[in-house]
């Protein structure tokens, strides 16, 4: 499937939107806006480590003939579906994306109705084409 969306020389951006509260648990440091002081060097080191992890996982899933160095964006956001979807749409516009390719968690129709779906929000509000890849 990736062959339909990627051609040599394309710029690939990986966007990871995490809630402000899970930021501390995910990266192992408190969220900057919740702490009066922070060791900036330690914080940057943890963020670089997280970015490297994201790139490694992404590249491991690509066919071997695709050679790219993705640009990683880790963005803290509020926790609801609409705000995460809004962040994705705004970032796509900011980086002038030609399309947004994203996964879906397959929550099921009832759970999706009550909790919402980020992929559904993005597909309805993004100004560029959106491709949603369903989990097998």
UniProtKB/TrEMBL annotation:
This is UspA domain-containing protein. It comes from the Eukaryota. InterPro entries: Rossmann-like_a/b/a_fold, Universal_stress_UspA, UspA. Residues 8-134 form the UspA domain. Signal peptide: none annotated. Pfam families: Usp.
